[in-house]
Amino acid sequence: MPHFLDLRDISGETIHALLAEAARQKTKRSTTRDHCLDGRTLALIFEKNSTRTRVSFEVAMRELGGHVIMLRKDDLQLGRGETVADTARVLSRYVHALMLRAYHHHTLMELAKYADVPVINGLTDLLHPCQIMADILTIQERLGSIENKKIAWVGDGNNVANTWITAAMRLNFSLTLACPEGYVPDSDILKQAVSAGAHVSVTHDTHVAVQGADVVTTDAWVSMGDDDTLSRRQAFEAFRVDDVLMKLAAPHAIFLHCLPAHRGEEVTSSVLDGTQSAVWDEAENRLHVQKAVLKWCLGVL
Ligand code: CP
Ligand code: NVA
Description:
The longest helix is centred in the C-terminal third of the chain and has 19 residues, at 279-297. The protein is 40% helix and 14% strand. The protein contains twelve helices and nine strands. By secondary structure, the protein is of the alpha/beta class. 49% of the residues are buried. The protein folds into two domains: 7-128 and 284-297, Rossmann fold, CATH 3.40.50.1370; 129-282, Rossmann fold (3-Layer(aba) Sandwich), CATH 3.40.50. The protein has a five-stranded parallel beta sheet. Strands 2-1-3-4 form a four-stranded parallel beta sheet, with helices on both faces. The structure holds phosphoric acid mono(formamide)ester and norvaline (NVA). Norvaline is lined by residues 123, 158-160, 219-220, 223-224, 258.
């Protein structure tokens, strides 16, 4: 009963197998129905808003023959103080898998500890592994492979940035993150990556990160749960992906963003809507990756 919580828990080989299954699911979506999750139910638990994660998991589950139950935290007794552990024990008696989007990573770990069914990380303050799987699938489609590619992260050292670092511990690519001082990625994850020999570095200079990159990616300056909006807007002013910055990347470079985008903040509309942008494929790929993750967690991959 594997959980899908953190790419560090998953081997490079399994990551590649999941990506291959996601690509297969994408190819056959319009012609064949794979009802391998017939009769299974997934509970989707959200403490925070979601468009892509919520809809892609729901459609993925339905297209694989299963069902979903959508639960906002406040719909549950969890919102009135029932413990995460007791919630995990009870929900495990009803459903076959749980997905949680939580404010705090420790809430996810607590759910996984007490659940008797697989738990999937639908984003926490620390990590967003389903997102990076979709990003890597998009890179494979556009650039052939992620092997030896140069990935440039511009902006906040947030949950998505941390997950890129965890991916660099499992797959062979180089990652340079340009972040303002005070907004660098999680120091434990970074230390672990460096001591594991991953090709990861952090700079405060966006030009250093983007020069010659195959992929340029960014995310919101203010993530869900961040409350220092004003100081962030000031700190990140020089960390916007615009056409001038994109020109420093390789000519074939693609632009990725997990979305939602804040046009004019972390990215200009001309980059987001431009010819190098792969963001809509990236969003679509969430669906195909969710199918692979669900099949793996439920033992039918
Ligand atoms: N990228 C992503 O996780 O989007 P949602 O917040 O809409 O789920
Ligand atoms: N870093 C963003 C990602 C949203 C998908 C957040 O946590 O709000």
